[in-house]
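Notes for week 9. Today we move from apo structures to complexes. The key idea is that a small molecule is not decoration. When we ask for a structure prediction with flavin-adenine dinucleotide present, the ligand SMILES becomes part of the input, just like the chain. The input block below holds both the sequence and the ligand string. Read it once before you look at the output, and try to guess where the molecule might sit.
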Amino acid sequence: MGFVGPGRNKLVDDLGIKTEPSGAISRDARNMTSIPGIFVAGDMTHGASLVVRAMRDGRRAAEGIAAYLKK
Ligand SMILES: Cc1cc2nc3c(=O)[nH]c(=O)nc-3n(C[C@H](O)[C@H](O)[C@H](O)COP(=O)(O)OP(=O)(O)OC[C@H]3O[C@@H](n4cnc5c(N)ncnc54)[C@H](O)[C@@H]3O)c2cc1C
């Protein structure tokens, strides 16, 4: 179903990735989750939204991943 926000997710639970009270995946300014090297973008991190927002978010996550890998 769309527009209901992120649901419970076994991968997120198993890895212990930090989430917001809404269920959205927490992230830093470069879209990295609470687990170093794991990034998130799109509806999983800000809830149901628009395609253009998910695209912009994906680009930001890609930049975050590139910066992380260059370290
Ligand atoms: C009915 C509906 C109408 C909408 N209409 C509009 C609109 O008119 N305009 C607009 O801008 N936005 C609209 N949206 C919102 C838009 O579709 C979303 O904001 C956007 O698709 C979010 O992109 P995303 O990449 O975050 O997630 P998604 O597009 O949901 O992509 C996530 C992908 O991950 C895959 N996936 C999930 N779990 C796994 C797994 N374990 N392993 C591998 N792959 C997995 C899924 O199959 C899916 O392909 C609409 C949404 C819905 C539900």
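The mean pLDDT is 90.
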